[in-house]
Write a structure and sequence with these properties.
This protein is an all-alpha fold. It contains eight helices and no strands. The protein is about 60% helix and about 0% strand. It comes from Duganella sacchari.
Length: about 130
């Protein structure tokens, strides 16, 4: 993970473009790019992935790190359909308190390993139910 930050593009409705932007040269999700796109500092990202900053820096392909990044992307991808743009889905993931989950955000729930609960919730919203 270099200190070099590249500009974050506007993704609009193109979730695939987000996914491609986040990929590192080795095919893993780049924690640095993820932090830029999701407006996290690396300390918050390490905390959400339940790893130390040292581990995040030295082994960005660590399974715990990559699992959190993948699951966050799953939630964001599912939310993009409802939110209508990737940028709105990113905001929702990080900021929207979800009443059925004690007002925790998608980000907090992903960190707790509750991705499948959030995905079911999003599916219920798509089906016209509201939690």
């Amino acid at each position: 993970m270099s200190g070099h930050t590249e500009p974050v593009p506007v993704f609009g409705q193109d979730f695939e473009q987000l996914h491609l932007f986040l990929r590192d040269e080795d095919g893993a999700i780049s924690p640095g790019r993820f932090a830029s796109v999701f407006s996290f500092d690396l300390k918050a990202l390490a905390s959400a992935a339940h790893v130390s900053m040292e581990r995040l820096r030295k082994t960005p392909n660590d399974e715990n790190v990559q699992r959190y990044l993948r699951e966050s992307l799953q939630i964001t991808g599912a939310a993009t359909g409802i939110a209508q743009t990737v940028e709105r889905a990113l905001f929702w993931f990080k900021n929207a308190p979800l009443q059925p989950f004690d007002y925790k955000t998608g980000h907090e729930l992903a960190s707790e390993g509750r991705t499948s609960d959030v995905l079911r919730y999003i599916s219920s919203l798509e089906a016209g139910f509201s939690g």
